[in-house]
Every structure is written in C-alpha cells, then in structure tokens.
C-alpha cells in the first residue's frame, strides 16, 4: 500500500490511533484540522498528533489520483465530496461519489489485513477498534510517564479523557487493569 496513492487505510489507521471513532473519521472535514499545531478539533475535544501522522495525513489530503490493482492496474481519482476522506472512482467514471461510509472503512481494514496476513502468518487482526485501543494505551503510557508517581496517581477524569470514556473510580480501575496487561505484553515483546 503506497502512501501516495490515496489508499483509505492510511488516514483511517492513524485517525483511529489518535482516538477518533469511525463516525468521527467519516464526518471529519478539513476545517477540523489545525495543521500548524498538529491538531484535530471535534466539538470540544482536541486530538494531538505527531509528525509521522501529520505526514501521512498531509500526503493523503494532497493526493488526487492513485493506482489500484485488481486483475489489472488502473488509475483512480480521489473525489472531494466535502469531507477529509475522499471516495475513489475510476479515471473515466461518470459516477458521482458520496461520503465514505463505515462499511468502506471496515473494508479498507479487511483488505489491509488480507495482505498483512499473507506477509506475517501470526499477525494480529487489525480493526478500527484494535488500532483505537492500542492508540489509547499509547496515550496512557505517555500519561504514565508524565504523571508524578505514575498513572495510578492520575485522576479518574484525566484517565477517562485520555481513554475517551466516562470518568469515575470504577472506570479508572478497569482502564488501569487493561493498561497493566498492555504494559506487560509490550515488555514481553521488547525482550
């Protein structure tokens, strides 16, 4: 999957990683971005992203054509329909595309997984939800290192905002238990 051919998987993947739901991803518009601050604003929430994600999103945003292979190689157009994600049509198509759908996001993950599984037999199945959770754990890891005394000392509100869920002590305990399992698995992989 070339990052310069407008494949839907790249923005879907990184937007899930920084915490956007599928609905937020498909409804995202250019005006939600503050590129110079590397931020996306949706409602009252602000989602930060790093330079690597910035590069992926900017490349996608500037892409107008790409190549696909399905029995043959052919060119597609990415069509601006008022949302950040752009549907594709074949180069000479007269079809007027509409907004990218949840189903198309799921299909992009499915196609990516099919190729990924061919390359890595024991690879994890990557869905929006899986990528979203791994991104949430990454954000919790950052919070853990930035909080004096570790993440256990963070308030339920801070933890819930990082994980994007309802804030209370019970939720904090559940999230921290999942986070500890995540940390243990990461430590095993790094060894």
Description:
The chain has helices at 9-17, 22-27, 51-62, 102-119, 128-146, 156-163, 169-190, and strands spanning 33-34, 39-42, 45-48, 65-69, 73-78, 88-90. 49% of the residues lie in helices and 13% in strands. α1 (9-17) packs antiparallel against α3 (51-62), α1 runs parallel beside α5 and α6 (156-163) crosses α7.
Q: Helices, strands, pairings?
A:
Layout: H1 9-17, H2 22-27, E1 33-34, E2 39-42, E3 45-48, H3 51-62, E4 65-69, E5 73-78, E6 88-90, H4 102-119, H5 128-146, H6 156-163, H7 169-190
Antiparallel strand pairs: 1-2, 2-3, 4-5, 5-6
Give the oligomer, counting copies of the same chain as homo and different chains as hetero.
Answer: single chain
Radius of gyration, in angstroms, nearest whole number: 19 Å
N-to-C order of helices and strands: HHEEEHEEEHHHH
Q: In whole angstroms, how far apart are the ends?
A: 30 Å
Helix content: 40-55%
Which spans have pLDDT < 50 for at least 5 consecutive residues?
Answer: none
Main sheet specs: 3 strands, antiparallel
General shape: globular
Instruction: Determine the number of helices (DSSP H or I, runs of at least 4 residues).
Output: 7
